[in-house]
Amino acid sequence: MLHYGKRTLYGKIQRLPIRFFRHKNRTSYHIISVHFWTQPAKQSTYTTSKEISPKLFQNSLTVTNTQFLSKTKTKTKIAMSTLKIQPTAFALSSSVRQLGFFNLKLPRNCVASSNHFSRYGTRRALTVSMSTTSSTPLEVCVKSSTTAPNKPGDCPFCQRVLLTLEEKHLPYDLKLVDLAHKPDWFLKLNPGGKVPVIKLNEKWISDSDVIAQALEEKYPDPPLGTPPEKASVGSKIFSTFIGFLKSKDPSDGTEKALISELSSFNNHIKDNGPYVNGKEVSAVDLSLAPKLYHLEIALGHYKKWSVPDSLPHVKSYMKAIFSRDSFIKTRAQPEDVIAGWRPKVLG
């Protein structure tokens, strides 16, 4: 039951005739129809649709009717109403009649499917599915910053794990570890002393590759998997970057090797971009992005070198991935990156 001004809108949480779906390569949804009634005896139906972007996440599913249509012979009335549905671990639905254009604020663990619609007079059933997400924050240990308090350090593998958690909208408890003085509590749970490590299913797991795969299997929505034929795209950029960064001989071919790898990546993004797997980020982007961030900062500082203008798609890719909220939130301080590479460059 939904209160609307002085009137009451009736409905059932068991059946919700709204449908929307997520395209394979885009994060937008179509609302097919919403039905509600002001009196059980007076029922009429209008259907419409609106494409929206699910960037706003709350703890409940919110349907806001911004153009409520109440048609009579002489006029159409415009009004407002809001319906909230608390998320659960199973499919949700409700009944409502009479409809307008709606905005949807989806919970983080909400996914759905749809079919096509007709504009007027067709009743459709909406299914909202809730994926198995973590209500308890996941414990994750990463390197701490040496230049700023309460900030992640310069480990690109740690950032990859944090990016995965952010892009999957999973809550996590960030534990920062000073690798120069590893605390006893950290060595007790992780005798190897390496980061990143995360606690999944009551076990501590290390290695960013293993962690990313485990998170994908346990929390499949939103999917971040990369097709096998694209999984190795850009995989040699990091090693050639290190070779060039450490090089003392301008003619040893290390710069040429790096440009060759970047050129291959540039061609791939040109044909497949804006990200490695198309319009949406995937696991390979979350692995590559922190390494390109290190490349940009370290080579700029130690060699006064930057990605050539002849590789515009690499530059646009870096700009796009570096500007994502998940990346901004988890990136290392430039001073940490510079300090982290200093021993390799000067040593």
What distance separates the N and C termini?
70 Å
Strand order of the largest sheet: 5-10-6-9
| Overall pLDDT score | 74
According to CATH, what is the class of the largest domain?
Answer: Mainly Alpha
In percent, how much strand structure appears in the residues?
Answer: 15-25%
The largest β sheet comes out as: 4 strands, mixed
Please give the count of helices: 9
Structural class: alpha+beta
Label the CATH architecture of the largest domain: Up-down Bundle
Stretches where pLDDT falls below 50 for ≥5 residues?
A: 1-131
| CATH topology call of the largest domain | Glutathione S-transferase Yfyf (Class Pi), Chain A, domain 2
Radius of gyration: 25 Å
Number of strands: 16
* Helical proportion, percent range: 25-40%
| Global morphology | globular
Order of helices and strands: EEEEEEEEEEEEEHEHEEHHHHHHH
Q: Total domains, how many?
A: 2
